[in-house]
């Protein structure tokens, strides 16, 4: 599987070189001075990245000391999932190939439909053991389903892979990696790497070894005493997880804990988590899978000590879904700290669902959103000048897909605090922000989105790994005493309380959180206008309306699909799809299947009035022209017709999950579809059985039906609530029409023109070099036929048609005629010697004659197999019929003449004539016999 482990075994991040690198760049084949920044991607300096930020496009250069393909990916998390990839290599013809690919997961990155706008090659090559290329990338992606934005104002995850083979395949172990690189020039506070800090001290909090139960979920709590100081500052962290069962580590600050909790100091961890309530409410930091060490820039730190907190609680969460017995675990978390006053004190604000449990998500959904609101009544307690957010850590469990924190100020949504697409549980990290200002009175909406397609029961929020969470921890400055801000339902914790949504503001100075009513939960606000990313993000699918997946395999032809939720929850049901194309096309078709044969096809063309469309369901029984399928249960819906030169068919299909020769599961994440079209005059017919001419273009793509599932059982293409998602999964199921045309043309030239001409020539002409002219022409004819045969075999492998009669006859002819030059040479020599036909003569002569006639007939079978239009068949039939008639007539006449000559008694004159023609006698008998 191509690059299947591209990010599964990424190396630890090497130290970055921001700005010009100290490594020697003499081996770089392009001019590094044209760029503003440079970073070493690998640990030994053999993969170098360069960049120059631009307003709309940024320019990147990458070079690797390798001699095969080179790939650079733009990722949101450092994982392959969702990565927008630039790939370059030397093609089979020796040219330099540049491709834009997109990875939908830890699978083969697919070639994107957009090969010109999102990324553009500027220069590239491979020489002297180095592969390199320079390209431009659009900063704001056209569609986040297919591409990725460039974080050119802050930090960007890059993933890379290289090889010494130019075949794009899985890289060798270790020939890949990831780096989190600062592209912007803004101030940086939080770095995702371990850096040495002068005059710093070390603090390690430890959870002693515990014997883990076989329970799936275990939380253990260990109280820690911070170093004795009035005021010191944490400036770096070095998590050291030790058990493979460890789900996360969290360090909480304890503000004035009661004596009963202080008594935990120095004792064994408390793992009776279901009967233990953690009194420590201040979030300090967390480790989760994928996270690396972290260091604050000089002058920044998180305070602790008697002026803030003296105790901290280390929480460890172990996940043991297999119920393994005899497992033991211990862990520690090391920090760098300083007792010197820092210039800026950092705090952490907890957003998200702090109640954790009590909420549920619907199963069987491609995306389900869960949101909580931080109300203005809490943020008004910030300093009057506001706070500045410098990083955010989004946390979900295995179903997590997307996350965001929106800022609503004075009733209007402004630029988001943070957004994260393509979340991967094993690639969590602290996302650096470009110093975003938050003001008192701001409303913050935290949303997490989950994929519940594999669930059959409601999915709860909870502490177990199989449940879900939604958190966003925001580091900011200057420090204040607001620790957390969210909403809760008191009844979920205490059944005697009212069942209502209220706000919660948690402060370090308070004994308990402040609970109050707020109008923020019902007040509306003006949404941020959408700019760029013009296909609707998955983020909005769950907010109402139908989920529609859209693919435009060609720039002016588009197809869309929706599967109502009811269809997947109640078994096979309705689906909705749309065909859209300009009226410059005679017809356009969409089909379910991997090849035309037995595909479930829907063909759209203009109606008799020229103002509407006709939709014809068809099936192709084998490689024949599709015929009307009266079993299809389809309805042409509102919104169909012709408007502004565009044909549109909005269709409901009630039996598209199973047809006579195939079926499609509505839960399938990879379904095969075909399309075809013909440009030209409009059909203008209401007849659903009207004959059509052969297509002039075709192809295939795949749809992930999970992206199309959702919404009511109504026409989604006229519903304002429909949310359209562009699809990037166009597959390489393309049949090369030009290759098929070349195959047919070459074979026709061979059998309709050249082979018969060579045979007729040897019957009617008479000159000394005739035998060489005949042999040379027939060898040349065979070379043309062999080329056509090779193309035919390639096409047959592509569309599985090698078992068709046309292909079988063609391969028999290709083999039989291969031996004709040898048979002709033997016949020629024996005839000169014996002055008469031998067994070799008859084998050569009649094999040739049968081959020519069979080749002409097979050409007609080929036209039928390719569903060629009537005009092409008519032209071929006329020429093949005319040449065939001439050929057969000449052969019959020659045999008649030969019989008559051999039946006459020999005379002196005839003997002399025969003697004078000895050199040519074998020609007159047909040295090839055709």
UniProtKB/TrEMBL annotation:
| Principal place of residence | membrane
Keyword Lyase in annotation: no
**One Pfam family hit:** Cu2_monooxygen
Signal sequence annotation: 1-17
According to the entry, every stretch annotated as the DOMON domain falls at 45-163
Q: Is Electron transport one of the keywords?
A: yes
Q: Where in the cell is it found?
A: Membrane
Which residues does the UniProt record annotate as the domain Cytochrome b561? 705-899
Residue intervals passing through the bilayer: 745-765, 777-795, 807-827, 839-861, 873-893
Q: Which UniProt keywords apply?
A: Disulfide bond, Electron transport, Glycoprotein, Membrane, Signal, Transmembrane, Transmembrane helix, Transport
Q: Where is this region: Disordered?
A: 902-930
Gene Ontology molecular functions: copper ion binding; oxidoreductase activity, acting on paired donors, with incorporation or reduction of molecular oxygen, reduced ascorbate as one donor, and incorporation of one atom of oxygen
Q: Which GO terms describe its cellular component?
A: membrane
Enumerate the SUPFAM superfamilies for this protein. CBD9-like, PHM/PNGase F
Q: Where is the composition biased (Low complexity)?
A: 902-916
Protein name per Swiss-Prot or TrEMBL: DOMON domain-containing protein
Organism, by scientific name, is: Cryoendolithus antarcticus
Q: What is the lineage of its organism?
A: Eukaryota, Fungi, Dikarya, Ascomycota, Pezizomycotina
């Amino acid at each position: 599987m191509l690059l299947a482990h591209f990010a599964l075994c990424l190396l630890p991040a090497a130290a970055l070189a921001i700005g010009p690198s100290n490594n020697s760049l003499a081996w770089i084949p392009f001019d590094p001075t044209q760029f503003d920044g440079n970073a070493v991607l690998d640990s030994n300096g053999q993969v170098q990245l360069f960049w120059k930020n631009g307003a709309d496009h940024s320019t990147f250069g990458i070079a690797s000391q390798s001699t095969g393909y080179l790939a650079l990916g733009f990722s949101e998390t450092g994982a392959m999932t969702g990565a927008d990839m630039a790939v370059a290599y030397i093609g089979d013809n020796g040219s330099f190939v540049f491709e834009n690919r997109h990875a939908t997961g830890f699978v083969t990155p697919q070639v994107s439909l957009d090969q010109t706008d999102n990324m553009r090659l500027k220069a590239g090559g491979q020489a002297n053991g180095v592969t390199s290329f320079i390209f431009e990338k659009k900063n704001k992606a056209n569609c986040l389903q297919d591409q990725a934005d460039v974080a050119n104002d802050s930090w960007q995850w890059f993933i890379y892979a290289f090889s010494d083979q130019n075949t794009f395949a899985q890289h060798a172990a270790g020939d890949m990696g990831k780096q989190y690189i600062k592209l912007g020039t803004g101030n940086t506070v939080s770095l995702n790497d371990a850096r040495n800090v002068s005059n710093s001290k070390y603090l390690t909090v430890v959870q002693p070894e515990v014997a883990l139960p076989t329970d799936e979920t275990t939380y253990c709590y260990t109280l820690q005493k911070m170093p004795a100081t009035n005021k010191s500052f944490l400036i770096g962290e070095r998590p050291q997880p030790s058990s493979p069962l460890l789900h996360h580590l969290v360090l909480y600050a304890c503000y004035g804990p009661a004596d009963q909790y202080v008594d935990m100091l120095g004792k064994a961890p408390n793992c009776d988590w279901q009967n233990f309530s953690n009194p420590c409410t201040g979030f300090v930091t967390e480790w989760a899978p994928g996270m690396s060490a972290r260091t604050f820039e000089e002058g920044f730190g998180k305070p602790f000590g008697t002026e803030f907190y003296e105790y901290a609680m280390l929480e460890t969460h172990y996940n043991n879904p297999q119920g393994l017995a005899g497992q033991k675990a211990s862990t520690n978390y090391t920090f760098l700290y300083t007792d010197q006053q820092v210039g800026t004190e950092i705090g952490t604000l907890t957003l998200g669902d702090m109640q954790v449990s009590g909420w549920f998500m619907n199963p069987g959904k491609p995306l389900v959103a869960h949101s909580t609101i931080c109300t203005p009544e809490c943020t008004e307690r910030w300093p009057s000048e506001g706070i500045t957010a410098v990083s955010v850590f989004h946390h979900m469990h295995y179903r997590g897909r997307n996350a965001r924190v929106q800022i609503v100020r004075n009733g209007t949504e402004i630029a988001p605090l943070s957004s994260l697409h393509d979340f991967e549980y094993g690639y969590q990290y602290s996302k650096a922000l470009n110093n975003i200002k938050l003001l008192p009175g701001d409303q913050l909406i935290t949303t997490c989105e989950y994929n519940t397609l594999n669930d059959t029961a409601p999915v709860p929020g909870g502490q177990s790994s199989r449940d879900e969470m939604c958190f966003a921890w925001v580091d900011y400055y200057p420090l204040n005493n607001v620790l957390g801000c969210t909403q809760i339902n008191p009844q979920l914790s205490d059944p005697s309380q009212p069942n209502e949504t209220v706000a919660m503001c948690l402060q370090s100075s308070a004994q308990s959180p402040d609970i109050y009513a707020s109008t923020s939960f019902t007040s509306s606000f003006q949404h941020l206008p959408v700019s760029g990313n013009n296909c609707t993000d998955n983020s909005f699918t769950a907010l109402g309306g139908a989920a529609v997946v859209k693919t435009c395999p060609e720039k002016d032809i588009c197809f869309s699909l929706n599967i109502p939720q009811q269809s997947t929850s109640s078994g096979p049901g309705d689906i909705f799809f749309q065909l859209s194309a300009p009226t410059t096309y005679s017809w356009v078709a969409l089909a379910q299947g991997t090849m035309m044969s037995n595909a479930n096809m829907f063909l759209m063309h203009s109606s008799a009035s020229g103002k509407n469309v006709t939709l014809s369901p068809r099936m192709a029984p084998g490689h024949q022209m599709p015929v009307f399928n009266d079993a299809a249960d389809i309805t042409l819906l509102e919104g169909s017709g012709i408007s502004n030169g565009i044909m549109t068919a909005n269709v409901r299909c009630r039996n598209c999950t199973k047809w006579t020769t195939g079926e499609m599961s509505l839960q399938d994440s990879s379904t095969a579809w075909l399309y075809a079209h013909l440009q030209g005059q409009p059909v203008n017919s209401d007849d659903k059985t009207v004959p059509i001419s052969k297509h002039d273009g075709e192809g295939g793509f795949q749809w992930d039906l999970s992206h199309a599932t959702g919404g009511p059982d109504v026409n989604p293409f006229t519903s304002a609530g429909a949310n359209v998602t562009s699809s990037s999964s166009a597959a390489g199921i393309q049949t090369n029409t030009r290759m098929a045309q070349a195959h047919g043309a070459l074979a026709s030239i061979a059998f309709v023109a050249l082979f018969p001409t060579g045979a007729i020539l040897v019957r009617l002409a008479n000159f000394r070099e005739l035998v060489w002219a005949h042999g040379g022409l027939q060898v040349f004819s065979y070379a043309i036929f062999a080329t056509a045969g090779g193309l035919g075999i390639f096409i047959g492998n592509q569309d599985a048609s090698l078992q068709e009669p046309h292909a079988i006859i063609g391969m028999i002819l290709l083999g039989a005629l291969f031996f004709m030059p040898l048979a002709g040479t033997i016949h020629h020599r024996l005839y000169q010697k014996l002055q008469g036909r031998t067994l070799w003569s008859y084998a050569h002569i009649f094999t040739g004659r049968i081959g020519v006639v069979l080749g002409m007939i097979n050409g007609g079978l080929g036209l039928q197999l390719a569903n060629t239009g009537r005009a092409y068949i008519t032209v071929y039939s006329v020429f093949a019929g005319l040449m065939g008639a001439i050929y057969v007539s000449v052969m019959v006449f020659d045999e008649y003449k030969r019989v008559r000559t051999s039946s006459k008694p020999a005379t002196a004159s005839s003997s002399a004539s025969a003697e004078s023609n000895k050199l040519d006698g074998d020609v007159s008998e047909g040295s090839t016999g055709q």
